[in-house]
Amino acid sequence: MRLNLKQVLIIAYLLCDHGTVLARITALGPSFSLALFIGLYALTAASLFLTASIRNTPTRLTFAAIFAMGSIVLQSYEWGTRQKLTYSAFLMLIDSRGDIGDALYQYGPTLQTVVPLGLLLFVALALPPRQDRLPGWLTASAPITTVALLTAILFYRGGEGAQALPAPFAP
Fold it and tell me: How far apart are CA 17 and CA 26, in angstroms?
């Protein structure tokens, strides 16, 4: 199997968060929870590859923009504060949007790392797909189905369980 540029860029994006993934695997230890995490990670990663294969350009670009922005927001918070983004922390971010200058000053070095990663993801998803034989319904439904499934899992678990998943999908 020969990888194309889109696939290489997505793999590079996923590898950039290897520290968080390894920490999560270590924390879970050999257990059923680890098997579930690996399965969920594989599903979300596969969904990124399927999203990159959407043939409809406006749809693909929309998902690319949403996922890149979500990745930048989540990773800049988590990498800058070394904490996971909770709902209350998210509300605090929304309420403190007037202090953007202070935030840029304080988290500038983190943003210098995270913004290029978000742009890497955007480019990987936005590039036109090669002529794959994947059904259009599968590629178009993959990101929506993955977000819906992850939302249901997180709702059931009280918001816990998205740590170290690919940033575009984790809330």
Answer: 15
CA–CA separation, 53 and 48 (whole Å): 9
CA distance 101 to 104: 5
Whole-model pTM: value is: 0.86
Per-residue pLDDT of the chain (171 residues; tens, 9 = 90+): 577 899 999 999 999 988 888 988 998 899 998 998 899 999 999 999 999 999 999 999 999 999 999 999 888 888 888 887 777 777 787 777 677 777 777 778 888 889 999 999 999 999 998 877 788 888 888 999 998 998 888 888 777 767 777 877 665
Which spans in the chain are helix H? Answer: 5-15, 18-28, 32-52, 57-81, 87-95, 100-126, 136-156
Q: What would the DSSP string read from start to end of 67-94?
A: HHHHHHHHHHHHHHHSS---HHHHHHHH
Q: CB neighbours (10 Å) of residue 121?
A: 28
Take residue 11 and report the two structure tokens written for it: 């793999």
How close are the terminal C-alpha atoms of the chain, in Å?
33
For residue 108, give Cα distances in angstroms to 102, 112, 114, 115. 10, 6, 10, 10
